[in-house]
Amino acid sequence: MIETERAGRTFKVRGAVVHAVRDLSFRIEPGEFVGCLGPNGAGKSTTIKMLCGILTPTSGRVRVAGLDPSRGRTALARRIGVVFGQRTTLWWDLPLRDSFELVRLLYKVDRKLFQVRLDELTEALDLGGFTRTPVRQLSLGQRMRGDLAAALLHDPEVLVLDEPTIGLDVVSKAGIRSFLLRVNAERGTTVLLTTHDLGDVERLCRRVLLIDHGRLAFDGTVGDLMATAPGQATIEEVVTRLYTRGRAAPPPVEPV
Ligand SMILES: Nc1ncnc2c1ncn2[C@@H]1O[C@H](COP(=O)(O)OP(=O)(O)OP(=O)(O)O)[C@@H](O)[C@H]1O
After folding, report:
1. 44, 54, 195: residue to mutate for ligand 1 pocket, most atoms within 8 A of CB
2. How far is 240 from 145, CA to CA, in rounded Å?
3. Directed axis angle between helix 111-124 and helix 96-107, to 10°?
4. What does pTM read for this prediction?
5. Hey, which of 10, 45, 215 would you mutate to test ligand 1's pocket, going by the most ligand atoms within 8 Å of its Cβ?
6. Of 32, 93, 168, 223, whose CA is between 20 and 30 Å from 209?
7. Closest Cα to atom 23, ligand 1: which residue?
8. Would you give the DSSP letter of residue 83?
9. Would you state the torsion angle of the CA atoms of residues 14, 15, 17, 20, taken in this order, to the nearest 10 degrees?
10. Would you state the pLDDT for residue 256?
11. pLDDT per 10-residue tile (average), the chain, 256 residues
């Protein structure tokens, strides 16, 4: 469902080439729930942006639902839902329900199907109390639930989430997590999320990809991840160990 083959992305910054992502190869099968971890600046968001077609790889190949995301961005948009936790895709000054209607028009979703889906999402995400509220007046937790609904209204096969629980309180996080598990279990939606919250990994992800210095540093189950450290280490200890081990790697910047 998601495939990268030696994918790389560079940026030119003040006379130097930054290798944000390099030689990244992995496959995610339909219905998987995968977490992507990595220290700040590791290349997670760049990877997500290549998967959504926002960025074109400068080397290698990326496929999502059989499509090249940067060439088939419109076709892919119908099959993928995307949420950036730090940036809303909703219309700031419009009530949430108007944003949803715009999503319906953009994605050309049949009105009846849209209403069924909207009712399901309103119930599952408990949106009922604030669909008439302008997005700018929503709390972060409400806004995130709105963003998730907007990303799923066209019933995509793949859901890509960049830090979906960032800034949320424990109760809001628990609500979002149980919703995501339900979407994955009931609709078979393939989910890939990036996070710095190891609670997301423990509670949601069967598989973990760890990116460090733009490269894939680990790919396996949460059990495999825990087995990389001896004894009774916590997941925080295991991940800290892997992140600090990566510090010895060369910096991803070289002169042009
Ligand atoms: N548009 C850009 N122009 C120049 N450099 C960029 C750009 N986007 C990302 N980078 C650089 O690429 C590297 C990877 O950044 P990226 O945002 O993918 O990391 P990340 O793993 O998502 O980090 P974080 O966890 O802090 O969000 C960093 O060195 C970053 O400065």
Report:
1. 44
2. 30
3. 140
4. 0.90
5. 45
6. 168
7. 41
8. E
9. 0
10. 57
11. 96 92 96 95 94 95 94 90 91 94 91 93 92 94 94 95 91 93 95 94 94 94 90 88 70 57
Query: In the structure encoding, which two tokens stand for residue 18, read together?
Result: 């930054």
- Token pair 């059990």 is found at 223
Q: Which atom of ligand 1 approaches the CA of 39 most closely?
A: 25
- Of all protein residues, whose CA lies closest to atom 6 belonging to ligand 1? 11
Ligand 1 pocket, Cβ-based, cut-off 6 angstroms: 11, 13, 18, 20, 38, 40-46
Domain ranges of the chain: 2-79+156-238
Query: Could you give the CA distance from residue 100 to residue 1 in angstroms, rounded to a whole number?
Result: 26
User: Could you tell me where the DSSP H helices lie in 23-77?
Assistant: 44-52, 73-77
Tell me how far the alpha carbon of residue 46 lies from the centroid of ligand 1, in angstroms: 6
Q: Is 125 helix (H, G, I), strand (E, B) or coil?
A: coil
What ipTM is given for this predicted complex?
Answer: 0.96
Superfamily of domain 2-79+156-238: P-loop containing nucleotide triphosphate hydrolases (3.40.50.300)
Q: Which atom of ligand 1 is nearest to the CA of 42?
A: 21
At 252 the pLDDT is 56
Question: How many angstroms separate the alpha carbon of residue 214 from the centre of ligand 1?
Answer: 9
54: its two tokens:
């926002």
pLDDT of amino acid 73? 87
Angle at 192 between CA 187 and CA 193, to 5 degrees: 120
